[in-house]
Write a structure and sequence with these properties.
Keywords: Membrane, Receptor, Transmembrane
Number of domains: 1
Organism: Lithospermum erythrorhizon
Pfam family, one: RVT_2
Protein name: Transmembrane signal receptor
């Protein structure tokens, strides 16, 4: 990695300390996942003990499920308003892109019809 333009080291043996993770570093994905988990837990979700990528929020009137894989997120639930609030929160924290209704996720096709929802 090169130093920022105009920055001079006093001696050749000096190094700069990186204060945050960079995109392609091997620890970047883990640090992003830790930050994402921290934020989504602070919102009120509970992380599954069986799968760290599964988060659930259950109240008397709302049930939400959030699945995260690397930087892909699938959100579903019983309340459209609650899902919009979660998306707004995530956008404030991370700047997300909403791809609307899911048709594919992790190689699975998600189809909806009058008979229900089918995952193949």
């Amino acid at each position: 990695m090169t130093l920022p333009p105009g920055y001079q080291l006093a001696t050749p043996s000096q190094v700069c300390k990186l204060k945050r993770s960079l995109y392609d570093l091997k620890q970047a994905s883990r640090q992003w996942n830790q930050e994402f988990t921290s934020q989504i837990l602070s919102y009120g979700f509970t992380q599954s003990h069986h799968d760290n990528c599964l988060f659930v929020m259950s109240t008397s009137d709302v049930f939400l499920v959030l699945i995260v894989y690397v930087d892909d997120i699938l959100l579903t639930g019983s309340s459209e308003e609650a899902m919009e609030n979660v998306k707004r929160f995530l956008d404030e924290q991370f700047t997300i892109k909403d791809l609307s209704t899911a048709k594919y996720f992790l190689g699975l096709e998600i189809a909806r019809s009058l008979q229900g929802m089918f995952i193949t």
